[in-house]
Amino acid sequence: MTASPASPADSSRRRMPRADSSRRRMPRAARTRQLLDTAWALIGDEGTDALTLGRLADAAGVSKPIVYDHFGTRNGLLVALYQDYDARQTALFAAAIDKARPTLQDKARVIASSYVSCVVSQGREMSGVIAALNGSPELTAVKREYQHAFMDLCAGILAPFTGSAGVSGASLWAMMGAADALSEAAADGEIVEDDACDELLQVILNMVKRSK
Q1: Angle between helices 28-46 and 53-60 (to 10 degrees)
Q2: Can you tell me the distance from the alpha carbon of 67 to that of 200, in angstroms, rounded to the nearest whole number?
Q3: Fewer CB within 10 Å, N side or C side of the chain?
Q4: What is the pLDDT of residues 148-189, one digit of tens each?
Q5: What is the pLDDT of residues 13-43, one digit of tens each?
Q6: Are 186 and 116 in contact (CB under 8 A)?
Q7: Nearest Cα to Cα of residue 7 among 186, 127, 101, 107
Q8: What is the DSSP string of 166-203?
Q9: What is the CA radius of gyration of the chain?
């Protein structure tokens, strides 16, 4: 998550690999990267409903067993795309935090603006992935894992400005709820993105204030 994220839509604009060049042997990590990039391109061109393991194999120019070996099921592929997106956003978020001045106002503003901008800019590719996974145990487990990771990251960033006990778990969950609601409202056009960022900033600042 970052104020200027690299959306999966960026990768969807890349041309899909030519089939004749994709059948060569690749290290597993490189093959996984190729398959994920091809999957993002397919979603961008044809939508998430068109994404199947067989369609991905055809587009990547590989045999179906290779795709099944990497992802197992369609939900496995969708979870891998979710994780791929989150990893990129987390890296960019960390870079933005590192560049922020060491003040509560600046750190909190980066947290707020990065989270909101990430959701607003995720595009229909990521929205389609999440929609396809809604209700699946795989997504529930992955989302909870990343929620905890994000809250732990925020707690660490804000620790120098809180009381000795730090921010409570209940407060962090309240922040997550506000972040999700404000971001989704901004993404749907219900509120202006800047207003969502400002409101979330106030939530974070008040959370830190209450911890003292």
Answers
A1: 110
A2: 41
A3: C
A4: 999 999 999 999 999 999 999 999 999 999 999 999 899 889
A5: 445 554 444 556 889 999 999 999 999 999 9
A6: yes
A7: 127
A8: -S-HHHHHHHHHHHHHHHHHHHTTSS-HHHHHHHHHHH
A9: 19
